[in-house]
Each structure stands twice: as C-alpha cells, then as structure tokens.
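tool_call: predict_structure(chain=1)
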Amino acid sequence: MTKVNLMANGPLIVIGEHTVTHPDGSTEVKEARASYCRCGKSSNLPFCDGRHKGE
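tool_result:
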C-alpha cells in the first residue's frame, strides 16, 4: 500500500513504491519514500530539498 502525507508548511511525502513521470516523459521508480516540493523553491524539483524552511 502507498501512503501520502501532507506536511503542514512542508512537502508531500509518499511512502511506498510509486513511479514518477517527469515533464520530459522520463520515469523513475521510488521504492520506499520520497518528499515532493509544494512550495516551488527546491533546486531539485520535483523533490523537496528543505528550502521551504527558510520562510
């Protein structure tokens, strides 16, 4: 089962295997956990790099 957690003022965290499809059509499989940026400040989009903490 895949779980999705929304962190207050933070990332969207997906726990469990899932496939990410990027805008260029490439895909990658995340097998355990991934944090996705919701603020748009990450230098590693679509993944969170913690830059939201500077707000």
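agent: Residues 3-54 form one domain. Proceeding to next step.
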